[in-house]
Amino acid sequence: MKHFKTLSSYLKYLELPRPEHPMLSVFNSKGDGYLPCPKESSPPITNDCYTISFKKFVEGNLNYGRTQYDFTNGALFFISPRQVLQWDNSVIFEQRGFSINFHEDFLKGTELAQRIKKYGFFSYSVNEALHLSPKEEKQIESIVENIEIEYQNNQDEFSKGIIISQLDTLLKYANRFYERQFLNRKELSNNLLEQFNHYLDSYFESGKLQENGIPNIEQVADELSVSQRYLSDTLKKQTGKTTTEHLQLYLIDEAKNILLQPNKTVSEVAYELGFEYPAYFSRLFKKKEGISPSKYREKYKLN
């Protein structure tokens, strides 16, 4: 798989204009214009850059990581360094909007360098992109225009700080708008939680727990056709608990039923639930329930 270490080499490969800054590029269609067209197709590639893009009009399919996305509507999406990108000539690249690309080293020595890693949406699949309302779109476009002004003008010692400040503001707005999107899509969130619980039910009932152990979050997300981070963030917004916490609670509920069977030791219960180490099971149970598995058994044992 081809990897591009510099922004210039990445844009050259895409057959896009050279950047005005070695670590930053800004493309903005404005008005009735279109974004410059990249090359028609590409095998899987990676690079060391962040990308923030808003595409208003595009048709065709784009593979982003392991997910294929149909861009029939506009969306704001985010690509992190070393994310896998691939597309073919079925994509029609007549599109409006903007695309900001910057090398990860552009943020070195700034607070944003660490803060940007905490934004979960850089790990989302493209089909989990942010869909903006007209008002939100105008807010984002105004920030991009400020970035473009600094980018196009003769850059001085203040330019980088101003651009990074604007990028920081853009990402904070994106985070706010994602909160709105999670709230507005409660039906989809409820469906995802139902799918999550259904998968765990099926996994436990099939005997895979004893055979393969406790499923990891990436495995569950793959089965539900969503990214690991999006699954966790969606459940967190809806229930206040992450995917890992939901999985742990499911295991604890199963443990409660098995613990009331007097013929099984606490260690046997732990192994049956897929725990490699009974001590870890006991610590987790006590953390969630406030008492140890053996104390729980004594308290609720059947007469």
From TrEMBL:
<feature type="domain" description="HTH araC/xylS-type">
    <location>
        <begin position="194"/>
        <end position="299"/>
    </location>
</feature>
<protein>
    <submittedName>
        <fullName>Transcriptional regulator</fullName>
    </submittedName>
</protein>
<dbReference type="InterPro" id="IPR018060">
    <property type="entry name" value="HTH_AraC"/>
</dbReference>
<dbReference type="Pfam" id="PF12833">
    <property type="entry name" value="HTH_18"/>
</dbReference>
<dbReference type="InterPro" id="IPR020449">
    <property type="entry name" value="Tscrpt_reg_AraC-type_HTH"/>
</dbReference>
<dbReference type="InterPro" id="IPR009057">
    <property type="entry name" value="Homeodomain-like_sf"/>
</dbReference>
<dbReference type="GO" id="GO:0043565">
    <property type="term" value="F:sequence-specific DNA binding"/>
</dbReference>
<keyword id="KW-0805">Transcription regulation</keyword>
<dbReference type="GO" id="GO:0003700">
    <property type="term" value="F:DNA-binding transcription factor activity"/>
</dbReference>
<keyword id="KW-0238">DNA-binding</keyword>
<keyword id="KW-0804">Transcription</keyword>
